What does this fold into?
Amino acid sequence: MADRGASALSLPDDWPDHPDPILALNRMGSFDWDLDSGVMQMDAQAREIFDVRPDEYDDRPETLAKRVPSGEALRLDAAVSHALKDGSENYGAYFRVRRRDGTLRWTHTQGYIRRDDTGRPRRIIGIVRDATEELSESEARREQAAEEDARRKQTNIVQLTTAALAHARTVQDVIDALKDTHGLTHLGATSLVMGLVEAGRIRLIAEGPAGSFVPGTRVTRIDEPYPMSEAVRTLSPCFIESPEEFAERYPLLWPHITGLDITSAAYLPLIVQARPIGAMGLLYSDRRGFTPEERNILVALGSSIAQSLQRAMFYEQEMDLAQGLQQAMLPRTIPSVPGADVAVRYRAAAIGGTVGRDIGGDWYDLIPLPGNRVGAVIGDVQGHDTHAAAVMGQLRIVLRAYAAEGHPPATVMARASVFLHELDTDRSATCLYAEADLSTGVLQMVRAGHIDPLVRRTDGTCRRVCVPGGLPLGLSAEFGQLDYPVGTMELDPGDTLLLCTDGLVERPGADLDDGMETLSALVAAGPDDVRELADRLIVVAEERGGDDDVALLLLRRRELDSPRAGGRLQQHVAPGDPEALSGARRMIRAAVGAWGARDRADEVELAADELVTNALMHTEGAAVVTLRALTGSDRRLRVEVEDSSSALPRRREAGDSGVSGRGLLLVEALSDVWGVEARGGGKCVWCEFVVARPS
It folds into this structure.
């Protein structure tokens, strides 16, 4: 309380009868205190400050005791004594004076200590002044600063909470943002509850801390006597300022939360476009009541939270629709294919910030085909939205239809491109279609702007298969370039074919070739089981992240699960070429004999001759005859004759003198089974013969 460095007072010679005019102008009184005699003279202004009349003051400091409360006097005496003892030249102190009307007013005194040559204090000359207004202004400034600081903190909380909510995509994200260290807990809330309005009821979606859940409040009616229901019902905030008020207004709820030591609460309606979507409650255990500023802050927060919650609800609805659409467009199950192990996987990209972008146009499909063949499809429609998923679904259906009709791979791809071009969409698509004959292992592939497939051999090596390609689907039809070259290779039993979209390969800033090499190394080091391998690749994709979807199809040819080829021969027979027809007969007879089935050689040759002759006579085009030796549970020879006519053959009863009409009857009588398959622009008529196994 002591002040140093104050200048000494110079009092007039006729003081105190004529006070210093400067002090008087500043409403300051002065005093002269002789420490040896104990006499303290005061001028009129000083006596006015102490509210004593001249006849009431006898120049003794003790007389002022009735004006200075004891506590204030002790504090003032301590300040003066300390200054006298420590050699100070001056001191200063604030103390209160009780005026004759009983009011207390703040006073400030400052004294200059005069000492003799030995340093002994002999005299104190000082001033006194009324400091009530000064301290009131200072106190007001402190209170204003405190209010501004509190307002600034509350504004920061609003800003931090709003910033955190800006990144919330789901309802759970909103709840997590509010429970975060930068959330509403900075306002001192002990517990937070939140509910959403659903079909005239409020469903609780968040409560905290643990153990604060009230049984029976998981779902409540809006007309029930609960504070959250009242906020929704009235569209107005509900402020509860004391435990007594809580118990009186909500007797059903209060007994269940007494253990939380709640002293006040604020329940805010969450309103969007004048419609309540829910309510939020903040419960406090260390405060009573809310200032107008605090109420305004909470109402503003409620509005911000409502907007974020509405966005999150729209996002989740959009995602439910999008994911439902994509699941409907992708195959629900993958059919079991004799002779192959198949695994498929799909991973949606996690792209933040845009509603509906967690869905794309990547797809896979597996198409069982006649003759122990299977078609495998992988594709990617441009874009990440529900439109891409819808286009993908339509494209998948037409690809499956074209392949099932028997069109060769190049025709399947060309027709799909025309379909997409005519679909009146601005989307293009990349695609790879592979058709595998699981009996022979022959694999035919066409590529429309898609990345190449990979093949892992039985020795564990994995390589990229370079397939000649054409333009993406849609673009090739637009530019009239519908030629899709066919790449052919063989899959040995145990070999695995990998088809995938670029989300599994591409990485930002990395070269595609490097990505293919990395993927090849992963596949080579992966497990033999295709399902385990597919899981391993998806885990790698998850760990790497990325902003693109991943579709994956693995097909591993089995060795013994289905009939396999013991040999395959083919001959092209042109119309009007007897040598070709004779050559086909010789080929058939020689092959049947070489494969140990001489006992049925005549039957096979005759049936094949009938099928080739029918094709040449009724289609006016060429025929392709193929002979296969199949082994499995039994051993069979299969004859296939393909032509370019889509007209199906039909059996006719020949007349007594007829020379035609007996062909198919003869084939049916000679073979064990026969049939017809559509093959693109033509058909294939086939028959099979069960033969004995060679000794």
Remarks:
- Confidence is low (pLDDT under 50) at residues 1-7, 352-357, 560-565.
